[in-house]
Design goal:
Low-confidence stretches: none
Helix content: under 10%
Bound molecules: thymidine-5'-diphosphate
Distance between the termini: 31 Å
Shape: globular
Strand order of the largest sheet: 1-9-6-11-4
Number of helices: 1
Largest sheet: 5 strands, antiparallel
Oligomer: single chain
Strand content: over 45%
Order of helices and strands: EEEEEEEEEEEEH
């Protein structure tokens, strides 16, 4: 398990088992990812020209896994560091800790993006205005 500093966005490689029956990838909360999994949702059927996200979460850490197809994720962390990740490997997930702004785009037609979350859903923990996100960091 790769764990970065607080608020570090990073790729995590999962254990994958292959044999003559095919492949099997394992993700365990608090082991392969640095939190207990309270929620899972998945994104699919997003057109290529659509941008999703455009928000940060105050409390929730997430790991995004492209179990089918591909998409691109842009992140901006609390140090204003910007990164771009192309997700196209179902054996890797992108850890996006709390208080990181993210945009998701370039979804392929077959994209299914699974998102593991450290918290239950609450609309109150979303920051939807970029200006507010920037102000939170000072
Ligand atoms: P939204 O956060 O706008 O999706 P994205 O950031 O990928 O563009 O969520 C879309 C809708 O789904 C919105 O009405 C809120 C709802 N939703 C839930 O009810 N529970 C959840 O866990 C999530 C992530 C979203």
């Amino acid at each position: 398990m790769k764990t970065g500093q607080k608020n570090d966005v990073s790729m995590i490689e999962f254990a994958s088992h292959g044999d003559d029956k095919g492949m099997l990838t394992v993700i365990e909360g608090d082991k392969s990812i640095p939190f207990s999994i309270k929620r899972l949702f998945y994104i699919y059927g997003t057109k290529e020209d659509v941008v999703r996200g455009n928000h940060a979460n105050k409390q929730t850490d997430m790991v995004l896994i492209p179990i089918s197809g591909s998409c691109t994720i842009e992140t901006i962390d609390t140090n204003q560091e910007q990164n771009t990740f192309v997700l196209n490997d179902k054996n890797q997930g992108l850890l996006i800790p709390k208080m990181v702004w993210r945009r998701m785009f370039n979804f392929s037609n077959d994209a299914v993006l699974v998102v593991l979350c450290s918290e239950h859903y609450s609309p109150n923990e979303y920051i939807n205005e970029y200006e507010e996100f920037i102000e939170c960091n000072y």
